[in-house]
Amino acid sequence: MSNNIKKVMTVAGSDSSGGAGLQADLKTFEEYGTYGLTAITSIVTMDPDHHWHHAVQPIDPELVHKQMKTILAGGALDAMKTGMLGSVEIIKLLRSIIDEHAIQNVVIDPVMVCKGEDEVVQPENGQAIRELLLEKATIVTPNLFEAGQLAGTGKITTLDQMKEAAHKIVELGAKHVVVKGGKALHGPKAIDLLYDGKEFVLYEADKMETNHNHGAGCTFAAAIAAGLAKGNTVKDAVAMAKQFTTEAIKQGFAFNQYVGPVWHGAYNKAEQRMVKP
Ligand SMILES: Nc1ncnc2c1ncn2[C@@H]1O[C@H](COP(=O)(O)OP(=O)(O)O)[C@@H](O)[C@H]1O
Ligand SMILES: Cc1ncc(COP(=O)(O)O)c(C=O)c1O
Ligand SMILES: [Mg+2]
Fold first, then answer.
1. What would the DSSP string read from start to end of 218-252?
2. Which residues span the membrane (predicted)?
3. Which of 117, 246, 259 to mutate to test the pocket of ligand 1 (most atoms within 8 A of CB)?
């Protein structure tokens, strides 16, 4: 076994349905050939008797701290990624851990909404992410809604507004931001915009007419983190993550009548390893 294996930590919520959250992160880290570690911040359950309503149960910050101590007892990490963070206390704790261990290659996925849900999950967390985590971010990966919230620009519907929000988010301290146009931006392409304070780079793929994209955002951010851990530049890591996520969406499937997750094995053609009936 190679002793050069790259270690990536995710600090995220558990999505028992398997498409998003730390489940998406771990599956993606594995597909990238990296070693994933997890600190669970919250457990999300979906209610099949009430239209798949999401309920978030945050984990005690002390227990989150113990998980991180376990992870960091293995030495320096090559990258880390955050997802749903559970509470403001957990966000404060995370900031102190990033500082104390001088963690590099920090990918902040500022999860504020889940697809198919109208409510903002834990609105107070958005503010804390903005104040405490952006300045530690190698890259932050908001969708259109989250970019509008972080930048304070409100609803985003155009590429120019994506650029304006990206500019503000870099001003807030993030080294890079990739604003995900995804399905929400009007037009035939799924466009993501990367900005480093100097240059805008666009990443495009054909937009797929599908609702089977649960977990796309988590997968994209996890892929960026794994790419950075392996020593890629931010630009290359985003380009690779875009392809990885596009394939995962292409092979999304209906889990039930409410949700369709992406399939994280698609890029590496893991279906070829499936047992044939
Ligand atoms: N229908 C789609 N077709 C192609 N790419 C998509 C589609 N929906 C999302 N994407 C891409 O998937 C990635 C995750 O974006 P998005 O789904 O907007 O994030 P989130 O899950 O956080 O809302 C981005 O690269 C985005 O452009
Ligand atoms: C634990 C958790 N994290 C993150 C998300 C956001 O997922 P997405 O990748 O679709 O933005 C969800 C959505 O259900 C979730 O349950
Ligand atoms: Mg998301």
1. HHHHHHHHHHHHTT--HHHHHHHHHHHHHHHHHT-
2. none
3. 246
